[in-house]
Design a protein that fits this description.
Endonuclease, Chain A; 3 domains; elongated
Length: 301
């Protein structure tokens, strides 16, 4: 009977370890019926391997990256979640710092573990926590808010772009959700970035701002909303074989929209035209860049 209990206990331990990426806590083992003496024996015999205090790798000391993340979360207690740069790495839109796993604890805590950057965050909402591959982790939106103050602007831009490509966020929804995080330090840099990506002028305002830029570049007045090569284009100079298109979103474009844009540009090129693209944000807030590109293009044409 004792052997049957031991076999069942071992099977349950392996199943739990499998679901937890090969790691178990001291509490897990006690709950499965192992005594402190039995745990010590398995440590001594190499069937368990200490990863952090109270957290053990089962059977083999080398853990996958996900196993290391799970071990770090378990080491910080039941209210802990993977966060910040480590969460971004788990979601696939960032890289974590070497030698440090980021964990947030949803209660007041003074966790100190070598290799773990633990933060006490009792105000972290349950709505900001999900499980990915079994690991408790902050949501993609919360993760981006958290890392926004740790990343240089270009790297933050890249993270948002990658999260968008992975269909984890989209700029419009992300921008709207920032109202929830008004007091978070990362909300402001994200808002600045997303305003660039989602900014869009009305058709009339676009003409009001773009036409003077074309004139400054030395171009004659363009035709607008003309059919060219089977497509309606924003601005057209027939005498120069030049078309200019404007995009309201710089990054978030569906695959179908991207395919249509490529088809338009390819068709214009095949017809011997030059096609330029600017964002609405560039037209409104980066006029020098727009004028420079228009002027150099016109000079070449």
């Amino acid at each position: 009977m004792g052997d049957l209990k031991s076999t069942a206990r071992s099977a349950a331990a392996w199943e739990l370890a499998r679901r937890q990426h090969g790691v178990l806590t001291h509490r897990d083992l006690l709950g499965l019926g192992y005594s402190p003496k039995a745990i010590k024996h398995r440590l001594a015999s190499g069937r368990l391997h200490r990863v952090f205090r109270g957290v053990y790798a089962v059977g083999w000391p080398l853990l996958t990256r996900e196993g290391q993340w799970m071990a770090a979360v378990l080491a910080c207690g039941p209210d802990a979640v993977l966060s910040h740069r480590s969460a971004a790495a788990l979601w696939g839109f960032g890289e974590e710092r070497a030698g440090a796993i980021d964990v947030s604890v949803r209660r007041r805590s003074e966790h100190r573990r070598a290799g773990i950057q633990a933060r006490s965050r009792p105000s972290l909402s349950a709505d900001d926590v999900v499980r990915r591959r079994g690991i408790p982790v902050t949501t993609p939106t919360r993760t981006l808010v958290d890392v926004a103050i740790e990343l240089a602007p270009l790297r933050l831009e890249r993270a948002v772009n990658e999260a968008d490509k992975l269909d984890l966020v989209d700029p419009e929804t992300l921008r709207e959700s920032l109202d929830r995080y008004g007091g978070a330090p990362g909300a402001r840099p994200l808002r600045v970035l997303l305003d660039r990506q989602t900014f869009r002028l009305s058709d009339s305002d676009l003409e009001i701002f773009f036409r003077p830029l074309a004139a400054r570049a030395g171009l004659p007045p363009p035709l607008s909303k003309q059919m060219v090569d089977g497509f309606e284009v924003d601005f057209h100079w027939p005498e120069l074989n030049l078309v200019v298109e404007t995009d309201g979103l710089r990054y978030h474009r569906t695959p179908a929209a991207q395919a249509r844009d490529r088809l338009r540009d390819q068709t214009h090129t095949a017809a011997g035209r030059t096609a330029l693209r600017f964002t609405h944000f560039q037209v409104r807030y980066e006029p020098r860049h727009v004028v420079r590109i228009l002027r150099e293009t016109a000079r070449r044409l």
